[in-house]
Sequence to fold (260 residues):
Amino acid sequence: MLKGKTALVTGSTSGIGLGIATSLAAQGANIVLNGFGDVESPKAAIAAMGVKVAYHGADMSKPAEIEDMMKFAAAQFGQVDILVNNAGIQHVAKIENFPVERWDAVIAINLSSAFHATRLALPAMQAANGGKGWGRIINVASVHGLVGSAEKSAYVAAKHGIVGLTKVTALENATTGVTCNAICPGWVLTPLVQKQVDAKAAAGGISNEQATQLLLGEKEPSMQFTTPEELGALAVFFCSSAGNNVRGVAWNMDGGWAAQ
Fold:
Protein backbone atom coordinates (compact mmCIF):
# COMPACT_ATOMS: atom_id res chain seq x y z
CA MET A 1 0.00 0.00 0.00
CA LEU A 2 2.85 2.41 0.78
CA LYS A 3 5.40 1.23 -1.78
CA GLY A 4 7.47 4.19 -2.99
CA LYS A 5 6.59 6.31 0.05
CA THR A 6 9.10 7.33 2.71
CA ALA A 7 8.31 7.43 6.42
CA LEU A 8 10.45 9.22 8.98
CA VAL A 9 9.76 8.08 12.53
CA THR A 10 11.44 9.92 15.38
CA GLY A 11 12.44 7.97 18.48
CA SER A 12 12.18 4.75 16.51
CA THR A 13 15.06 2.52 17.58
CA SER A 14 12.81 0.81 20.16
CA GLY A 15 9.32 0.77 21.67
CA ILE A 16 6.37 2.52 20.06
CA GLY A 17 8.43 4.20 17.36
CA LEU A 18 9.99 0.95 16.19
CA GLY A 19 6.58 -0.75 16.23
CA ILE A 20 5.15 1.96 13.98
CA ALA A 21 8.20 1.98 11.69
CA THR A 22 7.97 -1.80 11.30
CA SER A 23 4.26 -1.64 10.48
CA LEU A 24 4.83 1.03 7.83
CA ALA A 25 7.74 -0.96 6.36
CA ALA A 26 5.47 -4.00 6.11
CA GLN A 27 3.30 -1.91 3.78
CA GLY A 28 6.30 -1.12 1.58
CA ALA A 29 7.41 2.27 2.92
CA ASN A 30 11.08 3.15 3.04
CA ILE A 31 12.05 4.12 6.58
CA VAL A 32 14.23 6.77 8.19
CA LEU A 33 14.96 5.77 11.78
CA ASN A 34 15.98 8.14 14.55
CA GLY A 35 16.86 7.66 18.19
CA PHE A 36 19.49 6.53 20.63
CA GLY A 37 20.56 3.06 21.73
CA ASP A 38 20.93 0.05 19.46
CA VAL A 39 20.62 1.11 15.82
CA GLU A 40 21.96 -1.82 13.83
CA SER A 41 19.39 -4.39 14.99
CA PRO A 42 16.31 -2.35 14.00
CA LYS A 43 17.98 -1.31 10.74
CA ALA A 44 18.68 -4.93 9.86
CA ALA A 45 15.19 -6.07 10.82
CA ILE A 46 13.52 -3.45 8.63
CA ALA A 47 15.92 -3.97 5.72
CA ALA A 48 15.04 -7.68 5.83
CA MET A 49 11.46 -6.66 4.98
CA GLY A 50 12.63 -5.62 1.52
CA VAL A 51 12.52 -1.83 1.93
CA LYS A 52 15.25 0.77 2.10
CA VAL A 53 16.21 2.02 5.53
CA ALA A 54 18.42 4.87 6.74
CA TYR A 55 19.25 6.29 10.15
CA HIS A 56 19.88 9.78 11.46
CA GLY A 57 20.86 10.38 15.06
CA ALA A 58 19.43 13.87 15.50
CA ASP A 59 19.02 15.05 19.07
CA MET A 60 15.35 16.02 18.95
CA SER A 61 15.86 18.82 21.48
CA LYS A 62 18.01 20.72 18.94
CA PRO A 63 16.28 22.44 15.99
CA ALA A 64 19.48 22.56 13.92
CA GLU A 65 19.87 18.78 14.17
CA ILE A 66 16.22 18.28 13.23
CA GLU A 67 16.79 20.43 10.15
CA ASP A 68 19.82 18.33 9.26
CA MET A 69 17.77 15.14 9.68
CA MET A 70 15.05 16.39 7.33
CA LYS A 71 17.64 17.38 4.71
CA PHE A 72 19.25 13.96 5.10
CA ALA A 73 15.91 12.17 4.58
CA ALA A 74 15.21 14.21 1.44
CA ALA A 75 18.69 13.49 0.09
CA GLN A 76 18.27 9.76 0.73
CA PHE A 77 14.73 9.25 -0.56
CA GLY A 78 13.53 12.42 -2.29
CA GLN A 79 11.11 13.61 0.37
CA VAL A 80 9.33 12.61 3.56
CA ASP A 81 5.79 11.46 2.74
CA ILE A 82 4.89 10.21 6.21
CA LEU A 83 6.17 11.93 9.34
CA VAL A 84 5.66 10.23 12.69
CA ASN A 85 6.54 12.52 15.60
CA ASN A 86 7.13 9.99 18.35
CA ALA A 87 10.27 11.00 20.27
CA GLY A 88 9.59 11.55 23.94
CA ILE A 89 11.03 11.56 27.44
CA GLN A 90 9.48 11.62 30.91
CA HIS A 91 10.25 13.10 34.29
CA VAL A 92 8.07 12.70 37.37
CA ALA A 93 7.97 15.25 40.20
CA LYS A 94 5.58 17.66 41.88
CA ILE A 95 5.42 21.07 40.25
CA GLU A 96 7.17 22.86 43.11
CA ASN A 97 10.02 20.34 42.94
CA PHE A 98 10.18 19.98 39.16
CA PRO A 99 13.72 20.80 37.93
CA VAL A 100 13.55 23.66 35.44
CA GLU A 101 16.05 21.99 33.11
CA ARG A 102 13.91 18.81 33.03
CA TRP A 103 10.80 20.87 32.20
CA ASP A 104 12.68 22.51 29.32
CA ALA A 105 13.94 19.13 28.05
CA VAL A 106 10.51 17.48 28.15
CA ILE A 107 8.86 20.39 26.31
CA ALA A 108 11.67 20.53 23.74
CA ILE A 109 11.65 16.83 22.89
CA ASN A 110 7.96 15.99 23.38
CA LEU A 111 6.43 19.11 21.82
CA SER A 112 8.79 21.53 20.09
CA SER A 113 10.49 18.79 18.07
CA ALA A 114 7.14 17.88 16.49
CA PHE A 115 6.63 21.51 15.46
CA HIS A 116 10.08 21.71 13.89
CA ALA A 117 9.79 18.42 12.00
CA THR A 118 6.28 19.31 10.82
CA ARG A 119 7.18 22.78 9.55
CA LEU A 120 10.07 21.28 7.58
CA ALA A 121 8.08 18.37 6.14
CA LEU A 122 4.96 20.29 5.07
CA PRO A 123 6.20 22.15 1.95
CA ALA A 124 7.10 18.96 0.07
CA MET A 125 3.88 17.23 1.21
CA GLN A 126 1.81 20.20 0.04
CA ALA A 127 3.55 20.24 -3.36
CA ALA A 128 3.10 16.48 -3.94
CA ASN A 129 0.51 14.90 -6.25
CA GLY A 130 0.68 17.69 -8.81
CA GLY A 131 0.15 20.37 -6.21
CA LYS A 132 -2.94 18.72 -4.70
CA GLY A 133 -0.79 17.47 -1.87
CA TRP A 134 -0.22 14.11 -0.24
CA GLY A 135 1.22 13.48 3.17
CA ARG A 136 0.55 11.96 6.53
CA ILE A 137 1.65 13.52 9.81
CA ILE A 138 1.05 11.28 12.79
CA ASN A 139 1.78 12.69 16.23
CA VAL A 140 2.21 10.17 19.02
CA ALA A 141 0.59 11.96 21.93
CA SER A 142 -0.67 9.96 24.90
CA VAL A 143 -3.82 9.53 26.90
CA HIS A 144 -2.08 12.33 28.83
CA GLY A 145 -2.91 14.53 25.87
CA LEU A 146 -6.54 14.10 26.93
CA VAL A 147 -6.41 13.76 30.73
CA GLY A 148 -3.96 14.64 33.49
CA SER A 149 -2.03 12.72 36.11
CA ALA A 150 -0.30 14.08 39.19
CA GLU A 151 3.47 14.68 39.12
CA LYS A 152 3.63 14.69 35.31
CA SER A 153 3.18 18.41 34.66
CA ALA A 154 5.69 18.75 31.81
CA TYR A 155 4.64 15.54 30.08
CA VAL A 156 0.92 16.33 30.32
CA ALA A 157 1.46 19.91 29.15
CA ALA A 158 3.55 18.72 26.20
CA LYS A 159 1.07 16.02 25.18
CA HIS A 160 -1.90 18.39 25.45
CA GLY A 161 0.16 20.71 23.26
CA ILE A 162 0.71 17.92 20.73
CA VAL A 163 -3.06 17.41 20.46
CA GLY A 164 -3.50 21.14 19.86
CA LEU A 165 -0.71 21.20 17.25
CA THR A 166 -2.38 18.22 15.54
CA LYS A 167 -5.69 20.08 15.23
CA VAL A 168 -4.10 23.25 13.84
CA THR A 169 -1.96 21.31 11.34
CA ALA A 170 -5.05 19.41 10.17
CA LEU A 171 -7.10 22.60 9.77
CA GLU A 172 -4.40 24.45 7.85
CA ASN A 173 -4.22 21.55 5.36
CA ALA A 174 -7.88 20.56 5.34
CA THR A 175 -8.41 21.17 1.61
CA THR A 176 -5.26 19.29 0.59
CA GLY A 177 -4.19 15.65 0.55
CA VAL A 178 -2.14 16.21 3.70
CA THR A 179 -3.68 14.90 6.93
CA CYS A 180 -2.56 15.17 10.52
CA ASN A 181 -3.80 13.03 13.40
CA ALA A 182 -2.65 12.04 16.88
CA ILE A 183 -2.45 8.65 18.52
CA CYS A 184 -3.07 8.67 22.28
CA PRO A 185 -1.92 5.40 23.88
CA GLY A 186 -2.47 4.40 27.47
CA TRP A 187 0.07 2.08 29.05
CA VAL A 188 2.38 0.51 26.46
CA LEU A 189 5.07 -1.85 27.73
CA THR A 190 8.09 0.07 26.49
CA PRO A 191 11.45 0.43 28.28
CA LEU A 192 10.15 3.74 29.73
CA VAL A 193 7.11 2.05 31.29
CA GLN A 194 9.10 -1.01 32.39
CA LYS A 195 11.19 1.32 34.56
CA GLN A 196 8.00 2.46 36.30
CA VAL A 197 6.94 -1.16 36.85
CA ASP A 198 10.38 -2.02 38.26
CA ALA A 199 10.33 1.01 40.57
CA LYS A 200 6.84 0.08 41.84
CA ALA A 201 7.97 -3.50 42.49
CA ALA A 202 11.09 -2.37 44.35
CA ALA A 203 9.23 0.24 46.41
CA GLY A 204 6.51 -2.21 47.44
CA GLY A 205 8.67 -5.30 47.82
CA ILE A 206 6.40 -7.15 45.40
CA SER A 207 6.86 -9.17 42.23
CA ASN A 208 7.08 -7.60 38.80
CA GLU A 209 3.79 -9.24 37.87
CA GLN A 210 2.03 -7.79 40.92
CA ALA A 211 3.50 -4.37 40.18
CA THR A 212 2.23 -4.61 36.60
CA GLN A 213 -1.30 -5.37 37.78
CA LEU A 214 -1.17 -2.46 40.23
CA LEU A 215 0.02 -0.09 37.51
CA LEU A 216 -2.70 -1.14 35.08
CA GLY A 217 -5.36 -1.22 37.80
CA GLU A 218 -4.80 2.43 38.68
CA LYS A 219 -5.85 3.73 35.27
CA GLU A 220 -6.56 1.16 32.55
CA PRO A 221 -9.88 -0.75 32.85
CA SER A 222 -8.88 -3.37 30.27
CA MET A 223 -6.02 -4.46 32.56
CA GLN A 224 -3.79 -5.01 29.55
CA PHE A 225 -1.04 -3.10 27.81
CA THR A 226 -1.52 -1.70 24.33
CA THR A 227 1.20 -3.09 22.05
CA PRO A 228 3.48 -1.22 19.64
CA GLU A 229 2.08 -3.48 16.90
CA GLU A 230 -1.47 -2.29 17.59
CA LEU A 231 -0.33 1.32 17.45
CA GLY A 232 1.49 0.54 14.19
CA ALA A 233 -1.71 -0.85 12.71
CA LEU A 234 -3.53 2.39 13.58
CA ALA A 235 -0.75 4.40 11.91
CA VAL A 236 -1.16 2.26 8.78
CA PHE A 237 -4.90 3.01 8.80
CA PHE A 238 -4.20 6.75 8.94
CA CYS A 239 -1.94 6.33 5.89
CA SER A 240 -4.52 4.34 3.91
CA SER A 241 -7.18 5.69 1.56
CA ALA A 242 -9.70 5.00 4.34
CA GLY A 243 -7.91 7.72 6.32
CA ASN A 244 -8.19 10.37 3.61
CA ASN A 245 -10.78 12.38 5.53
CA VAL A 246 -9.70 11.56 9.06
CA ARG A 247 -8.32 14.94 10.10
CA GLY A 248 -7.33 16.43 13.43
CA VAL A 249 -8.32 13.40 15.47
CA ALA A 250 -6.83 12.51 18.86
CA TRP A 251 -7.43 8.75 18.74
CA ASN A 252 -7.03 7.12 22.13
CA MET A 253 -5.99 3.48 22.31
CA ASP A 254 -6.00 3.27 26.08
CA GLY A 255 -8.08 0.31 27.28
CA GLY A 256 -10.86 2.62 28.48
CA TRP A 257 -8.64 4.98 30.51
CA ALA A 258 -10.17 8.22 29.17
CA ALA A 259 -13.69 6.76 29.18
CA GLN A 260 -13.86 6.86 32.98
User: Anything to note?
Assistant: The longest strand covers residues 178-185. The helical segments are 15-26, 40-47, 63-77, 100-127, 153-172, 191-204, 208-219, 228-239. Residues 1 and 240 are 7 Å apart (CA to CA).
